[in-house]
Amino acid sequence: MNKKIVIFDDDQEILTALESVLDFVDWDLMTFSSGLDAISVISREKPDLILMDVLLDGFDGREICRSIKENSDLKHIPIILISGEQGAENAQHQDFGPNDFLPKPFNIGDLIDKVYFQLAS
């Protein structure tokens, strides 16, 4: 069965880049350009991994991450937060923080390594 990855980023170029980089493996990719319905999408889709930008079209990916990690039905889903914002990587060390962090601009090798690691965990 294919692994399902849900990606949230309000930058269409980043979404396209992530899709093209991750599309070479038989993963089911779903992309969203807003964090508006993130929790309901994640609850419905039950992905194996979430890639999410910290700044999401008026939403804070760290708060969405916290909501996921506080939800007993969703907290097992690994989350990789992505951001170019200075200091955003500190979210990884907070209670209910992400499983990993990827700074923008990201290295493709680092992205793939982090995705494989989280899917294997």
UniProtKB/TrEMBL annotation:
Spans through the membrane: none
Domain Response regulatory: residue ranges: 4-119
Keywords attached to this entry: Phosphoprotein
4-aspartylphosphate PTM sites in chain numbering: 53
Pfam families noted in UniProt: Response_reg (PF00072)
SMART domains: REC
GO biological process, one term: phosphorelay signal transduction system
Family annotation (PROSITE patterns): RESPONSE_REGULATORY
Matches recorded under Gene3D superfamilies: 3.40.50.2300
Cross-referenced PANTHER family: RESPONSE REGULATORY DOMAIN-CONTAINING PROTEIN, STRESS RESPONSE REGULATOR PROTEIN 1
Protein name as annotated: Response regulator receiver domain-containing protein
Organism of derivation: Pedobacter westerhofensis
